Amino acid sequence: MSSITPLSQSQFTVSNKLQNHCFSIPFSRFTQSSNLSLKKSTKNQFSSIPFSRITRSSNLSLKKSTKNQFFSVPFSQSSNFSLKKSSRMVLVSATTSAHEKSKKMYPGEAKGFVEEMRFVAMKLHTKDQSKEGEKEPEGQPMAKWEPSVDGYLKFLVDSKLVYDTLEKIMEKAPFPECEKEPEGLAKWEFSVEGYLKFLVYSKLEKIMEKAPFPEYAEFRNTGLERSEGLAKDLGWFREQGYAIPEPSTPGLSYARYLEELSEKDPQAFICHFYNTYFAHSAGGRMIGRKVAEKILDKKELEFYKWDGDLSQLLQSVREKLNKVAENWTREEKNHCLEETEKSFKFSGEILRLILS
């Protein structure tokens, strides 16, 4: 219960608010005779003013102004209160200040959800990998790695399996429905071959109706795909006389996990999608250069090449990711962020194949 300090009645002011014909009460203190006290109403979270009397002859009553959320005082002419212009008004606000109830912002949230994912991912880097990293290095630093061709081939094979899995999941997402007739349809030139393709895709759409999350289709043909480049690289190694191994446990486990996740948990799956492609475009390229210097006479593999401007490709995918995440609740976004550590675990197991 808040106490009220005494004040002479002459200092009590009431200012007229012509717009809603009510009077708001600016005050710091009231007279002792009012028995006025403030208490919080748990029902509507506004402050109520219980009082026995302000003056015997006053018909004063309080009501809430819904427009400005301050208490207003409608009163009759029988009120004994005198009106006096006040140069300084202290309104009794019924709401907590904006600063006190400001919305909690997550790191990076102001720039979009992708920045939130980036922030969490960078914290999971080691201190020697990034200045934002918080993890202590495990094992030898990358500068002291001694990769082998056999180990690197295992890494490439398992990486290809993971990218194959991701890209097939995106490809099987149902096509967006056409809500209206395409513009200029009357002038289209049709062919039997084109119509047959249409029938095939129509059949595929019926098959893909079981695909769980149509938003995956947003990430089809982004320009970040790696499977085709990896296939060319493995072909080059084969031409050099190297035997191409079968996928190993790290790649098989990760691919299986991604397939299961894509069918039941889109937020967690998108976390893996983001970290797999974006990590390869940054730290992955650096690893590729280091390995090429040591065992490939600095040959640049197709795995580390992109058609077009990589920064523009990444920005386009960022925008799509942010757009998809706009439909998520805060809980779903947090769930996505929580999956980051597991993404690092799987990719780290595949990366360590280089040293096997």
TrEMBL record:
GO MF annotation, one: metal ion binding
UniProt keyword annotation of Plastid present: yes
Q: Which InterPro entries match?
A: Haem_Oase, Haem_Oase-like, Haem_Oase-like_multi-hlx, Haem_Oase_decyc_pln
GO terms classed as biological process: heme oxidation; photosynthesis; phytochromobilin biosynthetic process
Q: What's in the GO CC field?
A: chloroplast
The alphabetical list of record keywords is:
Chloroplast, Heme, Iron, Metal-binding, Oxidoreductase, Photosynthesis, Plastid, Transit peptide
Q: Does the keyword Transit peptide apply?
A: yes
Which Gene3D superfamilies does this one have? Heme oxygenase-like
In the record, the note on similarity to other proteins reads: Belongs to the heme oxygenase family.
Compartments, record wording: Plastid, Chloroplast
Coarse class of the primary localization is: plastid
What is the name of the protein in this document?
heme oxygenase (biliverdin-producing)
Report the EC code(s) recorded for this entry.
1.14.14.18
Q: What class of enzyme is it?
A: oxidoreductase
- Look up the domain of life of the source: Eukaryota
